Automatic annotation (TrEMBL):
Subunit structure: Homotetramer. Forms an RuvA(8)-RuvB(12)-Holliday junction (HJ) complex. HJ DNA is sandwiched between 2 RuvA tetramers; dsDNA enters through RuvA and exits via RuvB. An RuvB hexamer assembles on each DNA strand where it exits the tetramer. Each RuvB hexamer is contacted by two RuvA subunits (via domain III) on 2 adjacent RuvB subunits; this complex drives branch migration. In the full resolvosome a probable DNA-RuvA(4)-RuvB(12)-RuvC(2) complex forms which resolves the HJ.
Gene: ruvA
Keyword Ion transport: no
Organism from which the protein derives: Phytoactinopolyspora halotolerans
Functional note: The RuvA-RuvB-RuvC complex processes Holliday junction (HJ) DNA during genetic recombination and DNA repair, while the RuvA-RuvB complex plays an important role in the rescue of blocked DNA replication forks via replication fork reversal (RFR). RuvA specifically binds to HJ cruciform DNA, conferring on it an open structure. The RuvB hexamer acts as an ATP-dependent pump, pulling dsDNA into and through the RuvAB complex. HJ branch migration allows RuvC to scan DNA until it finds its consensus sequence, where it cleaves and resolves the cruciform DNA.
GO cellular component: cytoplasm; Holliday junction helicase complex; Holliday junction resolvase complex
Protein name: Holliday junction branch migration complex subunit RuvA
Length: 203
C-alpha cells in the first residue's frame, strides 16, 4: 500500500499534480482544494491511495489523511468508484459529507454529478455508520494559492468534464466565474476558479 508520496511538484493542473520522486514523475489525481495548495518547484507531501484495476494503476492524492480515509470509505458503498468518490470530495469537504450522510441530506449529495436521489439514499444507508461524526470547523473552506492564468477557461472546463458535468453545464459555469477571473487579471487562480465553478453548479 502507498500511504503518501513526497517529492518536488513538477506540474499542477486543476485536478492533477505530478510529483518528481527520485527522478520519476508520479501523476496523482487530486481535488481542486488539494491542487490549490501546491506550487510548481516546491516540495510537497500528499496522502495517497492506489487504485488497482486489471488494466491500470491509478494514484489519488490528498492534502490530509482524513480526506484519503473518506475517499476510501466512500468506495465501500455500492456504485461508488474512485472517480465518483473524488467528485464527491471536490464538491464537499470530508466533514460536509459526514454531515450530509448523518443528517440524511439527500439534496446535498445529489449536488454531485452522477448521484441521483436513489443513489444518495443508498449512500446514506450504507455509509451512515462508517464515516463517523464531523470533526468540526468551518465547512467548505480551504487555503488558496495563486497560479498562472494561461488558458484558465479550458482548464476549468476540462476539469469539470472530468468530474462528470455535461459540456453545457461546464460552459455555463465558466461563463459564471469569468467576472471573477477578470477581477484577478493575470493573477487568476485556476483551482480557485474551479472551486467557484463547482459552487455555481451545486446551487
Amino acid at each position: 500500500m502507498i500511504a503518501f508520496v513526497r517529492g518536488t511538484v513538477a506540474s499542477v493542473r486543476p485536478t492533477e499534480a505530478v510529483l518528481d520522486v527520485g527522478g520519476i514523475g508520479l501523476a496523482l489525481h487530486c481535488t481542486p482544494s488539494t491542487t490549490a495548495e501546491l506550487r510548481t518547484g516546491s516540495e510537497a507531501q500528499l496522502s495517497a491511495s492506489l487504485v488497482v484495476r486489471e488494466d491500470s494503476l491509478t494514484l489519488y492524492g490528498f492534502a490530509t489523511d482524513d480526506e484519503r480515509a473518506v475517499f476510501e470509505q466512500l468506495q465501500t458503498a455500492s456504485g461508488v468508484g474512485p472517480r465518483l468518490a473524488q467528485a464527491m470530495l471536490s464538491v464537499h469537504s470530508p466533514d460536509d459529507l459526514r454531515r450530509a450522510v448523518a443528517t440524511e441530506d439527500l439534496a446535498a449529495l445529489t449536488k454531485v454529478p452522477g448521484i441521483g436521489k436513489k443513489g444518495a439514499q443508498r449512500i446514506v444507508i450504507e455509509l451512515k455508520d462508517k464515516l463517523g461524526a464531523a470533526a468540526g470547523g468551518p465547512a467548505g473552506t480551504s487555503s488558496i494559492a495563486a497560479a498562472p492564468a494561461g488558458g484558465w477557461q479550458e482548464q476549468v472546463r476540462t476539469a469539470l468534464l472530468g468530474l462528470g458535468w455535461s459540456a453545457r453545464d461546464a460552459d455555463a459555469a465558466v461563463d459564471q466565474v469569468a467576472p471573477l477571473a477578470a477581477e484577478n487579471g493575470h493573477a487568476a487562480d485556476v483551482p480557485s476558479l474551479l472551486k467557484a465553478a463547482l459552487r455555481t453548479l451545486a446551487k
